[in-house]
Fold:
Amino acid sequence: MISPDGGGTSFRKTTLDNGMRVVTSTMPHARSVGISVFVGVGSRYDAEDRAGISHVIEHLVFKGTQRRPAPDQISGVVEGVGGVLNAGTEQELTVYWCKVARRYLDDCVDLLIDMLRNSVFDPTEIEKERMVVIEEQNMANDHPGHRVETLMDELLWPAHPLGRDIAGTRESVSDMTREMMMAHVEQFYSPSNIAISIAGNVEHEEVVTLVESLCRGWSPRRPPACTPFADTQQAPQLRLEYRKTEQTQVSIGLPGLSITHPDRYAVDMLSVVLGEGMSSRLFMEVRERQGLAYDIHSGVSHFQDCGAFVVDAGIDPKRVDDAVETVLVEVGRLREGVPEEELERAKRLSTGLLVLRMEDTRAVSSWAGSHELLLGHVLDVDEVSRLVEGVTTDDMARVANDLLLTEKLNMAVVGPRRAERRFLRALKL
Structure:
């Protein structure tokens, strides 16, 4: 028996007997289908001595199943018909996705479920992929922009899985055993911890029947909960890492709000006003007026019980002090309030980009699957637009004064700079 759940106007959802959630969005004029399979596990669920294990498993799932024992037999199912196949590990989710022409839907859904259910984790492939992941770590660490993000995570979430690199460390990846990996899969790769989301010219009942037929005999298991986070920061923090680079990478961050917090859209609008788009305050002041940076932007992260509000920039080392001071002044100005006209522009930008994004089948399937796993339901575009439109200038001022506090400031710097004094002084403005 299949139990149908409410789904709104844009999405339909069915929960199978084994707990797997099937979400569809019918896009009648699309020639492609986007298929996203989300597993409720990411680096936040990795034990300290197994940091990066969720990411390593994401790699190994592509290396062979009982029916498709070679990697090219997996990739060939999708690439052989002109499609795209990939995956990604985040802090709270792992996603396996493909985008193909509509007529290959059945074969690709069969492939993705086979990968999640029946991967063999061949010891030879494990050893090869272990080295691949370490090279991925090396590549990321050689990139100053990635390195400054890692340092910021360590400042925002100290001694917590959210503060660790998603890929783990050379030591943790080197020490992982096949038994550890299989235990992790057994714990988290349960149908009750999975949502499959499909967008395109599809019928919901057809998709449910297909997925149900491929999941027979797959028993559910309740996965462990993630480690909660409690913010205790009481003073500004700085991490400085010397590198001989042409640019200094700077990240300035503050604790944000969770994905379920009622003020999350007010925080989103603060970020849009501050540093998203070419008409944002930071772009206009730091780049257009002062010429201090080529790339400067802000962004927000929302997790289950916490979040972050971050500004990133690449700056000429000789002008980094001016840029940092300008950014901090602009962050502080948000506490003075945002004019109605500026807020309306931010709303139009945010909702307009969302509408554009939701014309792509892969984007729609990703939206629905991630919402289902993190929120337990899918918000459609009209719903989110209403929530964004409901943000007021009073909300913006209140949230800015609650969150953008001097004692909560964090700064990470990677570049040709060793002296901390001026950075520390700036943080205490």
In short: DSSP finds 16 helices and twelve strands in the chain. Residues 1-9 have pLDDT under 50 and may be disordered.
